[in-house]
Design goal:
The chain has 320 residues and is of the alpha+beta class. Helices cover 53% and strands 10% of the residues.
Length: 320
């Protein structure tokens, strides 16, 4: 694909400006919404907002820009620097694809932050202990090695060993979600406005941790199932207590994934309310709507389901 060397706006970058990260998308496209969720995760985790000026281009409204930039498939990410296309990525499949696209600029940003000398990522002693436990104490007993951004497994690793490592990593990941949820719930109840600023140390967004905390408060410790994931609990958290218990029992008994549980609950609730549904209309500006869609996609939900869940949670908090 031929790339223009002097592209039209957006944006018109000047020497010394941040490079521009242009996201070409269609609001009607499911793959675009998923890609936007991946992009949001990368921007939050790596703090790329300090490095890039993000520009979103709705190709339904600006087909002329899509044509001039040679955009043949959506979504596409384009990096502009000094008014020239430096790199592009078509149809990212996940966060790793996006991080690889941005790596040259991430490295440059790291040099500026550390006085011109890049420093390697360091793993905390707590995370190191958890990973060492997952990998049988030494972390390198069978040639495995880890860092904050990688797990390297040896050639010829047996299937049973590989599966056991995955199971233990999953256990640690799910436990850490409950820990974060209880930690956030404690902070929300004890520290007022200071809590909102302090949670930045986790790398998670404010709304994400608020959702975690809400789920934690919906389940007393005695009612949490260690044989089901945090995500399973989140799917039924808005239901009355007896229904929560019944659905979790079914999920365990029938070995449902989180998505299977969601589908079953959604189907049951739809059947219960059939004939009594009312349509609600909201007037929302485009940028705000796209932010909602991206957040919903990041949580694996359709926009309508995400909005309904937020409304249910707010109503339950008001009633409690």
């Amino acid at each position: 694909m031929n790339e223009p060397t002097t592209p039209p706006s957006p944006p018109r970058s000047r020497p010394g400006d941040k490079p521009a990260l242009c996201f070409f998308y269609s609001p009607k496209s499911g793959p675009c919404r998923r890609a936007e969720a991946f992009l949001a995760q990368v921007l939050q985790r790596r703090q790329n907002h300090k490095t890039f000026a993000l520009r979103r281009v709705n190709c339904d409204e600006r087909p002329d820009l899509a044509e001039r930039f040679g955009i043949e498939e959506l979504p596409t990410l384009v990096v502009l620097e000094s008014r020239k296309v430096r790199s592009r990525l078509v149809a990212p499949r996940g966060c790793r694809d996006i991080e690889q696209l941005l790596e040259p600029w991430l490295g440059a940003d790291g040099d500026r932050d550390h006085g011109g000398r890049a420093e390697p990522a360091r793993i905390s002693s707590g995370a190191q202990a958890a990973l060492a436990d997952v990998l049988d104490e030494s972390g390198s007993r069978d040639g495995s090695a880890y860092s904050p951004v990688a797990l390297t497994l040896p050639e010829g690793l047996g299937f049973d060993r590989w599966q056991a490592i995955g199971r233990r990593i999953g256990d640690v990941a799910d436990a850490s979600t409950w820990w974060l949820a209880d930690w956030a719930s404690y902070g929300e109840g004890n520290y007022g406005e200071k809590y909102r600023h302090a949670i930045a140390v986790t790398g998670f967004g404010y709304q994400t941790l608020r959702n975690y905390a809400w789920v934690a408060r919906r389940f007393d410790v005695s009612r949490r199932r260690d044989d089901l994931s945090f995500a399973h609990h989140a799917e039924v958290a808005a239901l009355p207590e007896d229904e929560r218990e019944a659905w979790l029992d079914r999920a365990k008994g029938e070995n449902w994934s989180r998505n299977e549980l969601r589908a079953q609950v959604k189907g049951a609730l739809h059947g219960r309310s059939e004939g009594t549904l009312e349509q609600v209309r909201l007037a929302v500006d485009t940028d705000r709507l796209e932010q909602w869609r991206a957040t919903a996609a990041a949580e694996g939900l359709e926009l309508a389901d995400w909005l309904a869940a937020l409304a249910d949670r707010a109503a339950l908090r008001e009633a409690s």
